[in-house]
From TrEMBL, chain A:
<feature type="transmembrane region" description="Helical">
    <location>
        <begin position="247"/>
        <end position="268"/>
    </location>
</feature>
<keyword id="KW-1133">Transmembrane helix</keyword>
<dbReference type="InterPro" id="IPR000515">
    <property type="entry name" value="MetI-like"/>
</dbReference>
<keyword id="KW-1003">Cell membrane</keyword>
<keyword id="KW-0812">Transmembrane</keyword>
<protein>
    <submittedName>
        <fullName>Carbohydrate ABC transporter permease</fullName>
    </submittedName>
</protein>
<keyword id="KW-0813">Transport</keyword>
<dbReference type="InterPro" id="IPR050901">
    <property type="entry name" value="BP-dep_ABC_trans_perm"/>
</dbReference>
<feature type="transmembrane region" description="Helical">
    <location>
        <begin position="15"/>
        <end position="36"/>
    </location>
</feature>
Automatic annotation (TrEMBL), chain B:
<keyword id="KW-1003">Cell membrane</keyword>
<dbReference type="InterPro" id="IPR000515">
    <property type="entry name" value="MetI-like"/>
</dbReference>
<feature type="transmembrane region" description="Helical">
    <location>
        <begin position="292"/>
        <end position="314"/>
    </location>
</feature>
<dbReference type="InterPro" id="IPR035906">
    <property type="entry name" value="MetI-like_sf"/>
</dbReference>
<keyword id="KW-0813">Transport</keyword>
<dbReference type="Pfam" id="PF00528">
    <property type="entry name" value="BPD_transp_1"/>
</dbReference>
<comment type="similarity">
    <text>Belongs to the binding-protein-dependent transport system permease family.</text>
</comment>
<feature type="transmembrane region" description="Helical">
    <location>
        <begin position="41"/>
        <end position="60"/>
    </location>
</feature>
<feature type="transmembrane region" description="Helical">
    <location>
        <begin position="98"/>
        <end position="126"/>
    </location>
</feature>
């Protein structure tokens, strides 16, 4: 491992570095700890001005308030449907596109690659206005489609760009051998290339999942009258009140909203780090 | 591209080729898949349809609306949209608030990018100097921050710094100092949240890159008596250049268009709009005051700035001789 050379630091130095790393880890984890802790605090403790880093009587009241809120479960499901659809569809579509631009030579190939790169830079937030009119004209306002379609399109350029390295890494000889053995092009694509590129697809999905799950602007702008089609961020806003915020509710809703992403991250963590490494080596 | 030029350079010397009519031979024979003309376009079709309909066309529309008069009356179809030429841009550029927001956006994004890159790189180097257990702890904490949705990250950070119930003011003994009241303290608070959720990407990517550097190179450097700082500056940083460019550009893009954090943490752009950035400003103009054309013009300005950044990026990539 390449870190060995650097590990040859004098022992006191290394212990100091490790102590520093642990302190920083604690500081970085603290906001999440505080979020979960506050979600379990009874209302009285949150309102008290002491701000204790533990709780005397953990309670589920805040969570109860969150789930009693009309349609919270529905919002949660909507968020899962939107993010799940975007992740799967963008992985599939990006896989095909990445295969096209890496394993074929054709006119405008380089132009397309540059366009995919440029597309990543487009500030999608600036497109909220034209997309609003587009969704309105196609009768898509207040539907999950108005959230799925733009996120699908916006996650594609980055996904294609990232998958390119993985598709490129599969040796040509393998492809030729498959054809000599009589495999059709479709068979090679799905039975050989797809499984080999799968780790890359996982790393890519992390990015599309996060950007879609995070979405606040589109949900706020495109889901305006039929709130049953809304997503989790909107459910969170209910607890912000003009006179006094319901911090227990906000923290409980935040916790519920963060857990699926954390689970997803833990599941793909290994693949993510090696995936980034793979993209980097390319 | 590079492959073609090298073969071209070799061919003229071939005996009997004449140098004109024969096509230069391919570097390697095309596999059956490569010969068919339509297959790549078939594979690209879904991606191109989606991008064309939901990215290219909206960009065209954005530009179009920015040249029209487009307010509530036109949206509801009550009045026809009239062409304004550069009228909207004149209004925008004549507004001192626009310049103030533009400046704030650039300074805020630059501060976010610099702190994120510095902290991310420093922690990536730290990760290489420690054993597995503390490394795992830091990695897990960072992944947690990275995974946290922007909106929940924003609410938690506001709560941490809440003047009445937050632990930070208690520990620092700041009493009921309100972070979101002042312009600079509000921006500083948002910056901390942005740093918190975006340094992990830099740290993990740079760490993965450092691990890809061959051991011998680093050993040779330390045998030659180079200090840690010197190894980083003279050996690792140049080898990591491609990654550093990627994380820098990604950070510029992300931090330049921060929306959720500003919107949630400063309640829509701060007191009297003191914490507005271009994105939130465009949103407020378009959706809160129905001035869709002004909002679109702001969008176009953002687009132009980010495209300029992209061009710089492309030049950097090209200069490194990377094959697309």
């Amino acid at each position: 491992m390449s870190t060995r050379a650097l590990l040859r630091v004098r022992l006191p130095g290394r212990l100091a570095a490790e102590a520093a790393a642990l302190v920083i880890a604690a500081a970085v984890a603290f906001p999440l700890y505080w979020m979960v802790l506050s979600a379990f605090k009874p209302a009285g403790e949150i309102q008290s001005t002491e701000a204790r880093p533990w709780t005397l009587a953990p309670s589920l009241d805040s969570f109860r308030r969150v789930f009693e809120q009309q349609e919270f479960g529905r919002y949660f499901l909507n968020s899962l449907v939107v993010a799940g659809t975007v992740v799967m569809a963008s992985a599939l579509i990006a896989f095909l596109a990445a295969t096209a631009v890496t394993r074929f030579r054709f006119k405008f190939r380089t132009t397309l690659l540059i366009m995919f790169l440029v597309a990543q830079m487009v500030p999608v937030e600036a497109l909220t206005i034209p997309l609003f009119f587009l969704m309105r004209d196609f009768g898509q306002l207040n539907t999950l489609g108005s959230l799925i379609l733009p996120h699908l399109a916006f996650s594609l350029p980055f996904a294609i760009w990232m998958l390119r390295g993985f598709v490129k890494a599969v040796p040509d000889a393998l492809e030729e051998a498959a054809y000599i053995d009589g495999a059709s092009r479709t068979r090679f694509l799905w039975q050989i290339l797809f499984p080999l590129v799968f780790p890359g697809l996982v790393a890519t999905s992390v990015f599309s999942f996060i950007s879609t799950w995070n979405d606040f602007l589109f949900a706020k702008s495109f889901i305006i009258s039929d709130t049953s089609q809304s997503t989790l961020p909107m459910a969170l806003l209910v607890f912000f009140k003009p006179d006094e915020n319901d911090w227990g509710g906000i923290m409980a809703a935040s916790t519920v909203m963060t857990i699926p992403v954390l689970v997803f991250f833990v599941l793909v963590q290994r693949r993510l780090v090696s995936g980034l490494g793979g993209a980097v080596k390319d | 591209m590079t492959a073609d030029t090298t073969t071209l350079r070799k061919t003229p010397g071939r005996p009997g080729a004449g140098g004109v009519t024969t096509r230069p031979p391919r570097r390697r024979p095309a596999s059956p898949a490569r010969r068919s003309g339509w297959t790549p376009w078939l594979y690209l079709l879904p991606a191109l349809v989606l991008l064309g309909g939901l990215l290219v066309y909206p960009i065209y529309q954005l530009g179009l609306i920015s040249f029209l008069e487009y307010t509530q009356a036109q949206v509801s179809g009550g009045e026809p949209a009239t062409f304004q030429g550069f009228g909207n841009y004149a209004t925008l550029f004549g507004d001192s608030q626009f310049w103030q927001v533009l400046l704030a956006t650039v300074v805020f994004a630059a501060a976010c990018v610099l702190t994120t890159l510095f902290v991310g790189c420093a922690l990536a180097v730290l990760l290489t100097r420690i054993r597995a257990v503390p490394r795992l702890a830091l990695m897990m904490a960072a992944l947690g921050a990275w995974a946290t949705p922007a909106i929940t990250g924003s609410t938690v950070w506001v709560f941490l710094f809440d003047p009445d119930f937050g632990p930070v003011n208690k520990v620092l003994g700041l009493g009921d100092f309100s972070w979101t009241y002042g312009r600079y303290s509000a921006f500083a608070l948002v910056l901390l949240e942005v740093l918190w959720c975006s340094f992990p990407f830099v740290m993990v990517t740079v760490y993965a890159g450092i691990r890809a550097i061959p051991t011998e190179v680093l050993e040779a450097a330390s045998l030659d008596g180079a200090s840690q700082w010197r190894i980083w500056r003279s050996v690792m940083a140049p080898m990591l250049r491609p990654i550093l460019i990627v994380v820098t550009i990604q950070s510029v893009i992300w931090d330049f268009k921060v929306f959720t954090q500003i919107y949630v943490m400063t309640n829509g752009g701060g007191i009297a709009g003191q914490n507005l950035v271009l994105n939130v400003y465009a949103y407020q103009k378009a959706f809160a005051s129905s001035q869709y054309s002004l909002g679109s013009a702001i969008g176009v300005v953002m687009l132009v700035i980010l495209l300029a950044v992209t061009l710089v990026y492309l030049r950097l990539v090209r200069r490194q001789g990377e094959e697309l």
